[in-house]
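We were asked to recover a plausible sequence for a given structure. The inputs and outputs are reproduced exactly as logged, with field labels preserved.

PROBLEM: sequence recovery
POSITIONS: 643
GIVEN STRUCTURE:
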């Protein structure tokens, strides 16, 4: 071709390319889709299923493709409505060209879902060994698609999947569906369901082994709560794992299952990694009631291959120069993992006062006598856990024991008497019997603790209940006879992510003698009511963790302890920041000897909480409503209490 021809053809080629480009732009665009006639989950599923809606995300789509999508929309809508039981909807689809260049195409879908298909009959049967299984019968009783219910395919699918999962957890490892079918008659808006599930045989637990365990076979058997031949249940495997973990002997616990189809059994293989034998603890704290506090602890998790253990702790407290030492040895007993014989010791020494307080006044009538109080106790008993209401609560810790307590108080040891002390003692020589005491008490009793706690920091919720019954009698060698019962607990409940309600209560009653003493000096007179209970068993309240607004253990008859106790508290806490919150509270309570005149004291106030790694830091300002001489009292605590 000559050069002139090439020059003539080039403009023609360029013009053709430009025309094709313009045509291509004219034959494409974006789309906006409007849907009417349905709402809620129907609308949501239609929007997820219809191509025209999905095309809204594209900047450009060809006109040919838009028209194809409009044609497909009817069938897509029908498929999207079927899972909800709508099989015969009326669908109108319109696709409108843009009114001006650059504007989107407009698609309109008008949908009338019509009447839903309803269940006409539901033949749901379970055969095999599981036909009478309570859990499978409960599943059958909760079948969601009863007669006249709207046919929802998701409910159908979830129901039979849950049946499969439940059968697997219950040990029906050979279960299968004989029939699983839905027959739909759209013209009559009805469906017939048919599901027949053959569970086959239920497997049973076989043997257990722990080949690499560092402990005796007897101990491993004791820690095994599953009996050979027991019907398989995955929940029992979980409880077995928990029993091994809670023994405190292992750092890691893995239970592998070995199914034997010929025998129809599941054998358990324990993979146990022994923990280090010793744990040491050191914690510090501070409180306006107690001053500085220090706790040191040592726990020997196992002393031998039999699993016997030792737990010891030392506590020091600035207030009253208090010193506490306790230790307990636990020896495995019986065939259950939470059953022990125990032997324990307890030592306590502190500077204490014998007080002369009129319950209706703040200031003492006479000066206190300062003395040293010493307590030593040896106890022998049994510790075990009881699984009361296991679906609702953690196991109850039960301690039954006999204790021998030696207790003394001596205000003459240091004889730091003021002139008033000496005059008071000279005028009331009968006081000497209360200022120098030494008793040995033999008591028997039971203690119970029910924990049910979850979460941490502000989000801790649940309840802890404690109770005890203790009795002593002169026939056992005790100088006094008494019977005491006590129950106390605290309950924390979250409401949403920021609101928390805290309830606390205590009730204690003691059947014990009291001594009445009139103390007189010059023109001053005070009637004392003194319980014969050893100080270790007396009730006292008031302070940071009981009735706020009053001093530490300042609420009791003449502030020397009492036979009976009533305490109640309600507190609202609002989380402001990630780890801190504000609180408002109302406390009421007292410890007293006279049941007919408890003289309950009330306190109310506000506080601040900061949740840290060492525990909550708590700051409260409380108003003692029944103490007119004191307007406000500050309560500040860091960390935990003394032992």
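RECOVERED SEQUENCE:
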């Amino acid at each position: 071709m000559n050069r002139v021809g090439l020059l003539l053809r080039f403009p023609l080629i360029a013009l053709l390319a430009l025309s094709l480009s313009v045509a291509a732009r004219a034959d494409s665009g974006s789309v906006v889709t409007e849907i009417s006639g349905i709402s809620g989950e129907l609308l949501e599923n239609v929007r997820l299923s219809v191509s025209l809606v999905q095309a809204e995300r594209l900047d450009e789509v060809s006109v040919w493709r838009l028209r194809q999508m409009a044609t497909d929309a009817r069938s897509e809508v029908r498929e999207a409505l079927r899972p909800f039981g709508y099989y015969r909807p009326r669908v109108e689809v319109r696709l409108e060209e843009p009114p001006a260049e650059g504007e989107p195409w407009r698609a309109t879908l008008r949908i009338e879902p019509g009447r839903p298909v309803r269940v006409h009959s539901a033949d749901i049967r379970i055969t095999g060994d599981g036909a009478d299984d309570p859990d499978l019968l409960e599943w059958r009783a909760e079948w969601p698609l009863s007669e006249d219910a709207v046919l929802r395919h998701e409910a159908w699918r979830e129901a039979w999947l849950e049946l499969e999962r439940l059968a697997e957890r219950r040990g029906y490892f050979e279960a299968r569906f004989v029939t699983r079918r839905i027959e739909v008659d759209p013209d009559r808006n009805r469906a017939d369901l048919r599901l027949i599930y053959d569970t086959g045989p239920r497997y049973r637990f076989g043997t257990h082994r722990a080949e690499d365990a560092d402990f005796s076979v007897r101990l491993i058997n004791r820690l095994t709560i599953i009996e050979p031949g027991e019907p398989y249940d995955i929940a029992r495997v979980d409880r077995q794992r928990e029993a091994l973990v809670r023994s405190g002997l292992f750092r890691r616990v893995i239970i592998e299952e070995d199914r034997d189809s010929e025998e129809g059994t599941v054998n358990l293989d324990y993979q146990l990694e022994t923990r280090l034998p010793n744990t040491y603890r050191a914690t510090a704290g501070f409180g306006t009631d107690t001053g500085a506090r220090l706790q040191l602890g040592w726990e020997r998790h196992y002393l031998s291959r039999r699993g016997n253990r030792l737990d010891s702790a030392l506590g020091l407290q600035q207030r009253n120069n208090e010193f506490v030492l306790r230790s307990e040895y636990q020896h495995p007993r019986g065939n259950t993992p939470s059953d022990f014989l125990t032997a324990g010791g307890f030592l306590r020494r502190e500077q204490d006062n014998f007080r002369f307080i009129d319950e209706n006044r703040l200031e003492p009538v006479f000066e206190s006598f300062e003395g040293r109080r010493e307590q030593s106790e040896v106890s022998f008993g049994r510790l075990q856990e009881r699984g009361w209401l296991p679906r609702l609560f953690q196991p109850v810790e039960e301690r039954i024991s006999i204790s021998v307590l030696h207790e003394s108080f001596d205000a003459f040891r240091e004889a730091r008497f003021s002139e008033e002390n000496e005059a008071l003692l000279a005028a009331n020589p009968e006081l000497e019997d209360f200022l120098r005491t030494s008793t040995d008490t033999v008591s028997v009793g039971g203690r119970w603790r029910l924990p049910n706690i979850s979460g941490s920091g502000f989000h801790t919720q649940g309840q802890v209940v404690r109770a005890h019954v203790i009795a002593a009698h002169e026939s056992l060698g005790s100088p006094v006879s008494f019977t005491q019962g006590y129950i106390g607990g605290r309950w924390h409940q979250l409401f949403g992510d920021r609101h928390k309600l805290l309830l606390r209560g205590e009730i204690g009653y003691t059947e014990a003698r009291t001594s009445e003493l009139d103390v007189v000096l010059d023109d001053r007179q005070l009637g004392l009511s003194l319980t014969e209970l050893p100080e270790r068993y007396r009730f006292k309240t008031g302070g940071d963790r009981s009735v706020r607004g009053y001093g530490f253990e300042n609420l009791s008859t003449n502030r020397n302890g009492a036979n009976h106790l009533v305490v109640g508290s309600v507190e609202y806490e609002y989380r402001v920041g990630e780890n801190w919150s504000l609180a408002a509270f109302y406390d009421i309570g007292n410890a007293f000897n006279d049941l007919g005149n408890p003289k309950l004291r009330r306190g109310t106030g506000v506080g601040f909480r900061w949740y840290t790694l060492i525990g909550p830091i708590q700051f409260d300002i409380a108003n003692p409503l029944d103490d007119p001489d004191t307007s406000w009292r500050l309560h500040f605590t860091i960390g935990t209490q003394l032992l």
